[in-house]
Amino acid sequence: MFTIENQATGKIFRTDGDNAILDDALIHGLNFPYGCQKGFCGKCKATIVEGEVGYEGDIPNGITPEEVADGMALLCQCRAKSDVSLVVDELDSVADIEVRSLPCKVESIKHLNHDVVQVFLKIPGAESLQYLAGQYIDLVHPNFEPRAFSIANAPTNSSLIELHVRQIEDGKFTNFVFNELREKSLLRLEGPKGDFFFREESKKPVILVAGGTGFGPVKSIIEHAIATKLNRQIYLYWGVRDEVDLYMDLPQQWVNEHDNIHFVPVLSEPNEAWQGRTGFVHESVLADFDDLTGYEIYACGPPAMVKSAASTFVEQGMIKDNFFSDAFVFAFTGKK
After folding, report:
1. Half-sphere exposure of residue 116: CA atoms within 13 angstroms, side-chain side
2. CA-CA distance, 42 to 53, in Å (whole number)?
3. What is the CA radius of gyration of the chain?
4. Nearest alpha carbon to residue 195 among 333, 46, 48
5. What is d(CA 43, CA 184) in angstroms, rounded to the nearest whole number?
6. In degrees, to the nearest 5, what angle opens at C-alpha 305 toward C-alphas 336 and 213?
7. 281-288 and 303-315 helices cross at what angle (nearest 10)?
8. For 129, which DSSP code?
9. What gap in Å lies between CA 324 and CA 318, rounded to an integer?
10. CA geometry: angle at 122 spanning 130 and 247, to 5°?
11. According to the model, what pLDDT value does residue 331 have?
12. What is the mean pLDDT of the chain?
């Protein structure tokens, strides 16, 4: 095993040298920049300060012999041959990431319950989408207006995009996705978009408040935190109407496998058999935390839920700069 250190950030990860350095960096949750991941575009260039790297075959087209002689390497293609110290500017804000329009193919569709479907989109060929955990894309179909959907998987495999789509009674696009969309169908996506993303450099404990399919971007954030071996305390509150609306069992799996992750489901219209929390999800947070001053809070879900959380959490000590919400919901400004 070799140790890879980015001297620009001090972050370290381990690799066995079988995969490209970029691939292992993404698996470990590091936001190394990249584009095509095929050695053509050159966006993943880094300076090798110490250590040895090598390529399988010829030097890729995305880097010149002069750059190689100057100690640069294409991280999407090179593999570690020893411990490596390198310098690369990691992406830490949405301003660093290019919004792109890309074709995509429906890889799979799975109905998770009576009104939520899980869709995996595959970006074909040499293309991929770089994004931060929590961001969203616009899904484009020629027969409908573009619709925004949060990305539900962590940014470790950016050629495969997971969406959680809830069927809305009068929603033409969501009804199409739920009832008519088929595997291998061709669509386009535009993204990533939104300033709702995980601030991973913070040391504060995290409270995640999800309403309904607001669980999707929260899932992306938690999976990213797990991949980066984050040791901050994470408290997930997921509010839905009835128990059937808790459409994934992942939260309990996270709790069972990670001591720093905690989960509280909250039902607003429970059946008689339910023994857990009831009411509005933000009220359960208020009941559990007397002082929210030292916490970072992420809220994603219906506008009314996010607006209620924002106002009541401030009354309980939350600092406004520590509150982050989805781009399409009300926040402190009261605007969409």
Report:
1. 19
2. 16
3. 21
4. 333
5. 30
6. 90
7. 20
8. -
9. 11
10. 90
11. 33
12. 90
Among 2, 30, 38, 21, smallest CA distance to 201 is for: 30
Answer whether 113's CB lies under 8 Å from 244's CB: yes
- Tell whether the torsion through CA atoms of 176, 178, 184 and 187 is positive or negative: positive
Residues paired with 104 in a beta bridge: 187
**Token output for 151:** 């990305």
Q: What does the block give as tokens for 82?
A: 């020893």
Cβ within 8 Å of residue 124, ≥6 positions away: 103, 104, 105
DSSP summary character for residue 182: -
Q: Please give the single-letter amino acid code of residue 118.
A: Q
- Domains of the chain (ranges; CATH) run 2-87 (3.10.20.30), 95-193 (2.40.30.10), 206-325 (3.40.50.80)
Give the 3-state secondary structure percentages of the chain, helix then strand then coil, rounded to 5.
20, 30, 50
**Backbone CA torsion sign across 183, 185, 186, 189:** negative
- Identify whether the C-beta of residue 278 lies closer than 8 Å to the C-beta of residue 270: yes
136: pLDDT strictly greater than 90: yes
Calpha distance 40→74 (Å, rounded):
9
Look up tokens 């993204």; give the residue.
Answer: 191
User: Which of 150-164, 213-227, 283-297 is predicted with the least confidence, judged by mean pLDDT?
Assistant: 150-164
* Cα distance between the two ends of the chain: 49
Structure tokens belonging to residue 171: 């929603």
For the residues 80-98, what does the mean pLDDT come to? 84
Q: Do 3 and 56 meet the contact criterion of CB atoms below 8 Å apart?
A: no
Identity of the residue numbered 258: H
